[in-house]
Amino acid sequence: MERMGSVWFLLELAMCSAMVGMLVSVHGQDQNPAGFISIDCGAPNDYPDNRLRIHYKTDEEFIDSGKNAQISTDVIYDYKQSQSKNLRFFPTGSRNCYTLRPDQGKGNTYLIRASFYYGNYDNRNKTPAFDLHIGTDYWITVNSSDYHYKEIIHVPTTDTIQVCLINTGNGSPFISSLELRLVDSSIYQLSNLTSLSNAWRYDIGSSSDTTYRHPQDVYDRMWSGNSYDYVTINSTSTTGLSNNNDAYKVPAEVLKTAQKATDVNPYIYVSWSSNSTDEWCFYFHFAEIERLPTGQRREFTISVSDRLMDTVTLEYLKPVTVASQIVTGPKINFSIDATQQSGQHLPILNAIEIFTIVKHLNVPTAMDDITAINDIKKAYSINGSSWQGDPCVPADFIWKGLECSHDNPPRIVSLNLSSIPLRREVVSSISNLLALVSLDLSGSQLTGPVPEFLAKLPNLKFLNLSGNKLNGSIPESLQKKVDDQILQLRMEGNPDLCKKGLCKPKKKGKSILFTVIASASGSIVAMLMALAIVWRIKTTKRKGAQTTQPIKSKYRPFMYSEVLKITDNFKNVIGEGGFGKVYLGALASDTKVAIKLLSRTSKQGCKEFQAEAQLLMIVHHRNLVSLVGYCDDSEHMALIYEFMANGNLRKQLSNQSRGTHILTWRERLRIAIDVAQGLDYLHNGCKPPIVHRDLKTTNILLNESLQAKIADFGLSKAFAADNDTYISTQPAGTPGYLDPEFHSSGNLNRKSDVYSFGVILLELITGYPAVIKNADETMHVLHWVTPIVQRGDIQSIVDSQLDGEFNVNSAWKLLEVAMQCASTTAIQRPDISRVLAELKECWDIEMGLERSQRMGSSKIRSANSFEMTSTEIECDSLPDAR
Ligand SMILES: *[C@@H]1O[C@H](CO)[C@@H](O)[C@H](O)[C@H]1NC(C)=O
Ligand SMILES: *[C@@H]1O[C@H](CO)[C@@H](O)[C@H](O)[C@H]1NC(C)=O
Ligand SMILES: *[C@@H]1O[C@H](CO)[C@@H](O)[C@H](O)[C@H]1NC(C)=O
Ligand SMILES: *[C@@H]1O[C@H](CO)[C@@H](O)[C@H](O)[C@H]1NC(C)=O
Ligand SMILES: *[C@@H]1O[C@H](CO)[C@@H](O)[C@H](O)[C@H]1NC(C)=O
Ligand SMILES: *[C@@H]1O[C@H](CO)[C@@H](O)[C@H](O)[C@H]1NC(C)=O
Ligand SMILES: *[C@@H]1O[C@H](CO)[C@@H](O)[C@H](O)[C@H]1NC(C)=O
Ligand SMILES: *[C@@H]1O[C@H](CO)[C@@H](O)[C@H](O)[C@H]1NC(C)=O
Ligand SMILES: *[C@@H]1O[C@H](CO)[C@@H](O)[C@H](O)[C@H]1NC(C)=O
After folding, report:
1. Can you give the pLDDT at residue 183?
2. Does position 181 have pLDDT exceeding 80, yes or no?
3. Fold classification of 30-183 (topology level)
4. CA-angle at 442, arms to 472 and 581, nearest 5°
5. What are its E.C. numbers (predicted)?
6. Residue 656 predicted with pLDDT over 70
């Protein structure tokens, strides 16, 4: 073998291209062993590695992101492996995955090896650190500047295996090569719940600069030479060792050297300290390589961390492997001790493999959903940097535009490809996403008909196909779902739709939205009255005979002509909400008002508009935007509110307002308290409690003195008193603010509002929006903040526009509250009343008040001390007055 190697080497030196070509064709067969996938990441072309007798491919067909680079020429000859010279790095995307599809498929045992050599490819002399995932689970962290590799022995439960590089904020991940080897399933006993991550694989008794792998090792394991403080022994014959039927197939070259205990040290003992959470597993390989006198045998016991694993009797040149059980603890050791029967023959060790256990804890997305979404990805050539790996798992890496349930296994419940140029028909793979609740394909340049199969999605409740080039008519089955109010369908902006004879009369077909609104519509006043009566009855039951003013009288109905007048014919647009435009108006008394007009093409429909009106008539709190009046002419619907001079909080925080006023730390704190008070009132001051359902910084409005009020009750819903949860029948909320538990339960409850409030706090602290958008990736503010919190770096978290003008202790406190509120699970989130108390403490810290002399909480804003304007009884007395 040694001689063969040098011949190859000479030929390589000769390097005439004709010769290389010949070598490839002659040895092409040998160089692609069955069950091998060999990828030289970043390599410009495929090539045979003649030394290894393996044919390497470029990584093109295995990944669709990242960039190629060559390592620095200063170090390019440091390692002779060709695979060390190029790499692929991933400057964008938090998870980038290679997808391997071995011919043998799932349920087989594979050795997967990823190699890394930074080689200063980027001239920054800064080796990145990052994580590797195997499928949906953490495998290992990569952090070394040397050429090194990570190996795992794995039994996949799917036909594809994904190896993902995770950006942990310590530089762009990179990879030099990726190899997969099929291994006999009878060895390395694994369940589909665990894999073995290779820590060391030693060829005991060899010098440290020898490494055996393919072709000596048919599985291409890499055996590095290593010696302990024992005597090295060496066999003269290897032929016997290589003719074995043992499935482990440890190469004869590896087995032919060993170390033997000495008279001074009559046993072999090795120990090291370990992280107590790590679980270890060993494979000891032995073969007798000394000729013992007839009738004598070497015999010994093998113990790991004082647990006896096996007793072994060796026969000449016959390999034996002992697998250990799993051990754990702060110190790990193994010892090999001669038995009495062994006589003077001391124990030996030929080779050892030491693994740590990788557990597969995350349940991958349902297979049918994975297949369907990958078909969709392929059909539309979607190559977003986040569309890699498992679509839903882990939750931090969910594909952009997807939302998933927390079922076991997780399902895809929402797909949003809005504004992505798909440029072809609606593909049928979508109908295989059976758990889909919401589908947004608006503005995606879709062509062809509206397919019937969309009606077959059993759970679909929201479908937006507007702004496409769809033609034909709406299938009856789909229209029926709309008519039955099972499905909310948006189709506007498809000019070719419904022009043919099959279509309904033009009037009806022209605007589907109109029909939807018309059917849901009635008279706002009638509904409000009805609601008021119901509510009164309920309250009366609950509270006894308490009389109130009729609700209706408090709000003045406006004629449309009046609305025109006070807005000066809709002269000044001051905003645009889900309903439509918001206009500035002035009442006769010169009081400024904001007028929300329901637009026909609005995202939120008539129902939500009415819902908002209904609620606003019932709730009154100085931290809730109050209603002045409403208009419900047959054609027009409008709500008239108090005017909030400083617009919404998002605008105040965003860069757009740079140059104008930058909210100070104290102003931010006060805004936080204002919002918490408003929310506390809704949650704890109203019976039944009211869940806002769409709390976000664009729904927090600021008046001229920067007092914050919660607005936009369109999605709010009071729930039945006995049930703390509102079962949602349609998607609600806004991405970035939506309770991560929503999809498992479909419930939005008070704790969902607390989550949204946590996100708002993070925005107040950092100045960033809930979803931070960069050139080609988006990141939730929570994910941005979390690692920095762990580093304890408050200065990097707080909005840089503040120039460090804040009290560090109050900042920490506020951050802590924000993180609690934004906990993934509802149970970890505090009630808003608790949050409010914490915020008040935070205020006291900011004001330098000691605990003992802290002011009464209601005095925080003395100029605005609490006053309940309402005489309605639906909401109890002021919670803040308690
Ligand atoms: C990487 O290793 C270096 C040196 O051992 C260490 O200082 C650094 O903290 C490590 N980085 C990570 C992210 O583990
Ligand atoms: C994992 O192994 C168990 C027991 O061997 C088997 O019942 C189960 O189906 C396997 N799971 C998968 C996803 O293959
Ligand atoms: C093993 O023995 C051979 C021949 O006797 C010798 O050339 C070689 O150096 C020895 N190897 C070791 C590791 O002692
Ligand atoms: C042990 O490993 C766990 C998980 O990798 C890590 O969180 C912990 O800090 C480690 N402990 C020690 C003592 O290194
Ligand atoms: C080997 O490890 C076990 C378990 O950690 C420990 O109890 C024992 O003392 C160790 N043996 C020696 C010789 O240190
Ligand atoms: C994906 O990438 C291919 C080639 O890089 C490009 O042609 C295609 O337009 C991209 N698709 C999308 C949806 O961005
Ligand atoms: C889909 O995404 C777009 C922008 O990414 C957003 O405007 C739209 O509201 C989303 N649709 C749904 C139903 O959430
Ligand atoms: C719809 O458009 C497709 C091309 O996009 C065309 O082939 C088809 O005939 C059209 N169908 C109708 C009913 O107009
Ligand atoms: C549907 O999509 C259109 C175009 O993107 C958008 O204007 C509209 O607001 C969406 N409707 C809903 C209800 O999300």
Report:
1. 95
2. yes
3. Jelly Rolls (2.60.120)
4. 115
5. 2.7.11.1
6. no
Please list, in sequence order, all residues whose beta carbon lies within 8 angstroms of the beta carbon of residue 387, skipping any fewer than 6 positions away.
Answer: 377, 399, 400
CATH fit for domain 540-643, picks 3.40.50.1380, 3.50.50.60, 3.30.200.20, 3.40.50.2300 = 3.30.200.20
If you measure from the C-alpha of residue 449 to the centroid of ligand 8, how many angstroms do you get, rounded to a whole number? 7
Going from the C-alpha of 428 to that of each of 239, 434, 437, 487, 821, the distances in angstroms are 60, 12, 16, 19, 40
Average pLDDT over residues 466-484: 92
Is the bond preceding residue 735 a cis peptide, omega within 30 degrees? Answer: no
pLDDT exceeds cutoff 70 at 806: yes
Closest residue by CA, ligand 8 atom 4: 448
- Looking at the chain, the domain(s) classified CATH 1.10.510.10 span 648-877
Q: pLDDT grade, residue 508 (50/70/90)? A: very low
In the predicted structure, residue 179 carries a pLDDT above the cut 90:
yes
CATH 3.40.190.10 describes domain 367-501: no
Q: Which fold has domain 648-877?
A: Transferase(Phosphotransferase); domain 1 (1.10.510)
Query: Does residue 576 register a pLDDT over 60?
Result: yes
List Cβ neighbours of 365 (8 Å cut-off, separation of 6 or more).
390, 391, 392, 393, 404, 409, 410, 411, 412
SS3 of 551, please? Answer: helix
Name the CATH architecture for the domain at 211-359. Sandwich (2.60)
Q: Which of 358, 291, 349 is nearest to 322 (CA)?
A: 349
pLDDT of residue 603: 52
- For the cut 70, the answer to whether the pLDDT of residue 102 exceeds it is yes
How far apart, in whole angstroms, are the C-alpha atoms of residue 46 and residue 276?
Answer: 43
Element (H, E) at 482: helix 476-483
Tokens found for residue 314: 């060796």
**How far apart (Å, rounded) are the C-alpha atoms in residues 834 and 871?**
27
Nearest protein Cα to ligand 9, atom 4: 442
Residue with the bigger pLDDT between 618 and 453: it is 453
Beta strands 257-260; 348-349: pairing state: antiparallel
Cα distance between residue 525 and residue 786, in whole Å: 48
Please name which ligand lies nearest the alpha carbon of 234. Answer: 3
Question: What are the tens digits of pLDDT across the range 688-727?
Answer: 788 888 899 988 999 988 999 998 766 565 543 334 444 4
Q: Give this prediction's pTM.
A: 0.61
Q: Which part of the chain has CATH 3.30.200.20? A: 540-643
- Ligand 3: list residues with CB < 6 Å: 206, 232, 234, 236, 257
Ligand nearest to the CA of 464: 9
Active site residues: 694
318 annotated as ligand-binding: no
Reply yes or no on whether the pLDDT at 632 is more than 60.
yes
> For 306-313, what is the mean pLDDT?
95
